[in-house]
Write a structure and sequence with these properties.
Chain lengths: 157, 266
């Protein structure tokens, strides 16, 4: 079966017809071509698919598109400023070499923003805890932690 | 994932009706287990009844004698609730130890207990605190609710509305968690209540269970030394790639001791 859904994605209203079993991540990537949200594992483990639904970070490989009907969604494409300049957390990841291949990065950044929204001054342990659901095969995490510290400071300004 | 018929419920009666009408209908709460199971084709329901939009199933009420938590309240909401932290801090600690932050933003208390995963955390708090499950049909004591591996006493068409937790004198939860999934390899919830002590173990057996010998010892004296010499036989415990039954038996005593220490430290 298929059904209609409508939601707000990155500030724009979206209405679409989806099959009931369409996962939210596939809807975003395949139907809306928002391919910044990555699929690393497809089993709710790696966090590469992290987006914000109604302001909270979730793994969109582990939910149906129809579960997000009526919600407000932000993906990695939606966090930059209107003039296209990067979000302070993105800048911090670049400045602190918080990425290598970049595959995990959209999810890391979305989780980090949710973390800082709830803990404006996170310490190392809170950052590592807050990124518990995000895996990175490249960096060894140290520079990601540094980047989140810097991003948290920049988000206050 | 196999095809299914998706339906959104507007209130609990509507959900119950839709649940009764489907050949093999399932309630979808936060979906953190069910969607994964459907993707693996371990579950193939005919109908999915999504109850996410039912506002009255969500929220936390606190009174003098405890907390009432709506079935669709997320783990993140329980973990960060000022009412939970003040009245039953062990419950907030437990909720914060589930999965990872994104899972906690979607997963719900009702979904967790209805699924009754043998390694889930909430069943330990339910049994450890002597909680009561309120459904659209009746109230069920936690001791009667969890009946076996992935099994509960919920009848077809029965939907969890809320869970009430009586406030203990003191309580704590200690978990030896799987480093990847954060599920409990062994988790022990201890509580000193007005009517004695309770000790509930998750992760170790087919379903959550109590340790009567530890409860008796703690009722006589609520101190860590009371449980140090008490061990649970490993015969019926789980054995898998993460831990042998003997190791789990050992962990029960260690986690019980740590939980009592944490409860006393407040
Ligand atoms: S792709 Fe969703 S958690 Fe890995
Ligand atoms: S930068 Fe390569 S996976 Fe994280």
């Amino acid at each position: 079966m298929s059904a209609r859904l409508s939601m707000t994605i990155n500030g724009k209203p979206v209405t679409a017809e989806v099959a009931s079993r369409t996962l939210l991540v596939d809807f975003l990537r395949d139907q809306l071509r928002l391919t910044g949200t990555h699929i690393g594992c497809d089993t709710a483990q790696c966090g590469a698919c992290t987006i914000h639904i109604d302001g909270r970070a979730v793994k969109c490989c582990n939910m149906l598109a129809l579960q997000a009907d009526g919600t407000t969604i932000t993906t990695i494409e939606g966090i930059s400023a209107a003039d296209g300049s990067m979000h302070p957390m993105q800048t911090a990841f670049r400045d602190h070499h918080g990425l290598q291949c970049g595959y995990c990065t959209p999810g890391m950044v979305m989780s980090a923003i949710d973390l800082v929204n709830n803990h404006p001054d996170p310490d190392d342990a809170e950052i590592r805890d807050g990124l518990d659901g995000n895996l990175c095969r490249c960096t060894g995490y140290h520079n990601i932690v540094k980047a989140v510290h810097a991003g948290a400071a920049a988000m206050k300004k | 994932m196999y095809e299914f018929n998706y339906q959104k419920a507007t209130n609990v009666d509507d959900a119950a009706n839709k649940l009764g009408a489907g050949a093999d209908a399932r309630v979808l709460a936060g979906g953190q287990t069910l969607i994964a199971a459907m993707k693996l084709r371990l579950a193939a329901p005919s109908d999915i009844i999504d109850i996410r939009g039912i506002a009255e199933l969500r929220g936390i009420k606190s009174g003098n004698d405890g907390l009432i938590i709506g079935a669709m309240t997320t783990h993140a909401e329980v973990a960060s609730s000022a009412d939970v932290r003040k009245n039953i801090p062990a419950l907030a600690v437990l909720a914060r130890s589930i999965g990872d932050p994104m899972v906690r933003n979607m997963g719900t208390i009702g979904g967790s207990i209805a699924n009754n995963d043998p390694a889930a955390d909430y069943p330990a708090a339910m049994i450890g605190l002597g909680a009561t499950v309120k459904t659209n049909q009746r109230s069920i004591a936690a001791d009667d609710f969890f009946t076996g591996m992935f099994m509960t006493s919920l009848e077809p068409g029965e939907i969890i509305e809320s869970v009430s937790f009586p406030k203990p004198k003191r309580a704590a939860y200690m978990k030896f968690s799987n480093p990847a999934s954060r599920y409990a390899i062994v988790g022990v919830f201890v509580a000193e209540t007005g009517s004695g002590a309770r000790v509930a173990v998750t992760g170790a057996g087919a379903s959550v269970f109590r340790v009567a010998e530890m409860e008796t010892a703690l009722a006589a004296k609520f101190s860590a030394d009371s449980v140090t010499g008490i061990s649970v036989a490993s015969d019926d415990l789980n054995s898998d790639m993460h831990a042998s039954a003997e190791y789990r038996a050992h962990l029960i005593t260690v986690m019980a001791r740590r939980a009592v220490e944490a409860a006393l430290a407040g």
